[in-house]
Specification:
The structure is a single chain. The protein is of the alpha/beta class and about 375 residues long. It has helices at about 15-25, 60, 65-70, 130-140, 165-180, 200-215, 305-320, 360-375, and strands spanning about 5-10, 30-35, 40-45, 60-65, 75-80, 80-85, 90-95, 95-100, 100-105, 110, 145-150, 185-190, 220, 225-230, 230-235, 240, 245-250, 250, 270, 285, 290, 335-340, 345-350, 355. The strands form eight sheets. It has a five-stranded parallel β-sheet with strand order 5-2-1-9-20. The chain has a four-stranded parallel β-sheet with strand order 13-12-11-17, with helices on one face. Strands 6-7-8 form a three-stranded antiparallel β-sheet, with no helix packed on it. Helix 1 (about 15-25) runs parallel beside helix 7 (about 305-320). The radius of gyration is 21 Å and the shape is globular.
Length: about 375
Amino acid sequence: MTATTARITVLGAGFGALATVRELRRRDAGAEITLVSPRAELHYLPGIIWIPSGLRTREQLVVPLAPFFERMRVRHVAADATGLQDGGRTVLTSAGELRNDALVIATGGRFIKKLPGIEHAITPCEGIAAAERIRDRLRAMEGGTIAVGFAANPNEPQAVRGGPMFEFLFGIDTQLRREGRRGRFELVFFNPSKEPGARLGARTVQQLLAEMARRGIRTHLGHKMVRFDADKVVTEGGEIAADLILFMPGMTGNAWFDATELPRSPGGLLRADAQCRIEGWEHAYVVGDSGSFPGPEWMPKQAHMADLQARAAAANLVDALAGRTPRAGFKAELACIIDALDRGTLVWRTPQRHVMLPSSRAMHWAKRAFESRYLRQYRG
């Protein structure tokens, strides 16, 4: 196999998939890269926290990828992945079969929607439309109780995305204060753990809970969830009356994985090694939320981690096709700014260090600046 003839298929159009494309093209100018996703668009989901307040709109967060694909010389196939054959060398899609010499799966995660009545809750990170529903509901409400919470995958506690829920919680509080309506609302944060967001570090959890107390946000912690009703959250430790429920369940693998023999973790994700190789599959890699990787228990499910894994996967894929031993790994690093609409708190964690900076306006603007810089590489 020579670098100029390699046929590489990338599944997905999120952070991990696009970072993989960039790194593949940097390392192999001649590879035939095919990317499969329903739309040639990047939806910048970290920005949806600002949709309820009007700071961001759909148009600002949806980036057409056709110019990027043209620059990277990538063929885009508008389809959904539905299965694999021939040990991953054939990808089954809703638009037909695609052959490859190497495969990268970056189709993200899927939220576990098993709690009874979960249709009564909005899951913000399902996409831009969910954030728009929150915006519209807030505009229509004269007052009432807003319950905000998240939970993990019980079979894989790392498969959780809780950070955005703190941002929606604090952002809504700030928004209502700006609008002069906070006094007509009660905000309640709920979580089955007594220390929600533990992967951010114990000190960060205590600061987040202290910030909730300072803002007058009630907490309901440490009680297993039972169900949602149209007007309440029901837990084993009591009920929370609610006029609006925002809830982020734990994550698991994509439904289409079930139609394959891909190895699964206890939580339903794809089992991968430290080089992002899917266990037991030749020239098949996974990056981002689709995978279950070795690393510290606090290793996050976030765009930054997907970028780091994408670089390793691309380097190893190119080496493997060239007959070299794949050796590239990725560092475990949590880096986020927990935004509150006007201020932000930086949290940075590695195996060696744990840094948390006090909330400041500078961090809010830093988060906005990062968004602008990140999207520039994909815009025409």
